Amino acid sequence: MDRSSRQTVILALVSVLLISGSQGGNILGVFTSTSPSHLIVQMSMIKVLAENGHNVTVITALKPVVTHKDITVIQVPLSEEDNKQMSATIAQFASQDNSNMIATMFRSMGQMKFMMDKMRDIMRDQRVKDLYENKDNKFDLVVLGYFLNTYQLGIAHKFKAPAIVAASMPPNQLFDGIVGNPSSISYLPSIGMAVERGQAMTFVQRIQNLFANAALEVLFAILEIYNVNSYKLVYGDDPSMPPFEEIGKNVSLVFFSSHALSEGPIRPNVPSVIEVGGIQIKDKPNPLPKQLAEFLSKADNGAILLSLGSNVKSSHLKPETNIKIFNVLSKLKQRVIWKWEDLDNTPGKSDNILYSKWLPQDDILAHPNITLFITHAGKGGITEAQYHGKPMLALPIFGDQHSNALKMVKDGFGLSLSLLTLEEQPFEESLTELLENPQYSEKVKTFSALYRDRPMSARQTVLYWSEYVMRHHGAPHLQSPLKQMNFIASHNLDVVALLVIVVIVFIYISKLTITAIIRKLKGKPESIDKIKKH
Ligand SMILES: *[C@@H]1O[C@H](CO)[C@@H](O)[C@H](O)[C@H]1NC(C)=O
Ligand SMILES: *[C@@H]1O[C@H](CO)[C@@H](O)[C@H](O)[C@H]1NC(C)=O
Ligand SMILES: *[C@@H]1O[C@H](CO)[C@@H](O)[C@H](O)[C@H]1NC(C)=O
């Protein structure tokens, strides 16, 4: 067989596998995160399953924007008051310096607890409990959207269903316990550390990394206590539930929204790490709404998309900042699409600026006339811009956005400015550099080609592995032994300790023996003389 016919056969086999697997499973998605960007990624994963004939039910806090006619959504919405508090939290984030992610995490424990409490309330809601208290319900697979919530895996046990975790981030130490990935802090930068792709960390960086890791471990230990308590609170009334530790280990796979081959870091991953980065990006963009399409079709000098994401509303920013942004953008020859919620209250009118409340970001970024993306550097937006090969100006606000921005700049795809201290002149200079120097666009286009080059697309990967887990009723055979091992055993510290003891004992005995021999010899000086004579 020559190469191309072998490829045809393999392709045919893959399609047969994909089709024959679609016998219509019952799948439950548990997506309780209050962050819209998480929900987009998670819904995009599960939508693939609905499109391929599975019966999908999802539990959410927010109203999903990614939907499918065959997905049953059980939304347990936040109260009006909670929504207000969420908005106030975001506004507070937007007004403070969050560039040190770990410090921010500790500082914002209160806000994090608020979101986690809301997620826990959902699991205790009768609409969710009905699912398992009604014994007729049967699920073949539970997909859990990850946000520091492993106790929610209890619901998979209720259905005796295998579980897949859907993570809207790359593999990191948060998941070491769930997937059993080997972690080495000597070359794996911790969350929040940006190291150039393929570069080893310097001595100083490794020291920083050690401390960053230690700080994260403390944070995780606190979160673990929260998880244990939540598990008790939600499932404690059922004596047939296994201990929390077993629940956490019983995960078949984790879908990560990353693609290490193109994005890095290059690291060892166990087989239950499945990367589906870019899952939210459509293979073919949808046609744009008429107004946007017309606006972009007349962009003789190209166009810029400005969006600070789904969490931060323009009203969360200082009004002066919005005015400064407007002053610079309104002078450009490029056209600008600006995501802005309050259309009666804009920073100013200009022929080259179109304000819009809601934007199909992925479809806009796919448009050939878009030449620059001004973004808050959320993982989703950066991924989309990278996929479509568009350079970026990052204005990060909180969470992983600062480290995303740092990494994006290191990769050469754009520039980053502090939103908190934004001034007109540096903003204008950065825009000019990005619009006039072709190097950013060239680098990100090269990346885009790498990012798209995969044996199976992200959607095919989600479908294949979800059906794989359903076909085999879980995936206990591909679990890493590291999941069963504690810190001491996984680092072989007990073996090293034994060896050290053996060596110490050996040295001690040798010393005793030698001293005894010397003493004996010294006690009988004549015998030494005898030896010397020989
Ligand atoms: C689909 O799932 C729902 C649970 O949300 C269930 O009530 C319904 O019977 C399922 N449909 C089929 C055809 O299995
Ligand atoms: C682990 O998952 C399997 C399905 O893959 C299930 O049958 C089993 O009950 C689960 N065990 C625990 C402790 O949840
Ligand atoms: C992009 O802009 C150019 C110049 O205005 C226009 O001719 C072209 O049709 C636009 N492309 C699309 C896809 O709208």
UniProtKB/TrEMBL annotation:
The keyword Signal applies. Belongs to the UDP-glycosyltransferase family. CDD domains: GT1_Gtf-like. Pfam families: UDPGT. The chain crosses the membrane at residues 495-518. The keyword Chloroplast does not apply. InterPro entries: UDP-glycosyltransferase, UDP_glucos_trans. Residues 1-24 form the signal peptide. It comes from the Eukaryota. One of its GO terms (molecular function) is UDP-glycosyltransferase activity. This is UDP-glucosyltransferase 2-like isoform X2. Keywords: Glycosyltransferase, Membrane, Signal, Transferase, Transmembrane, Transmembrane helix.
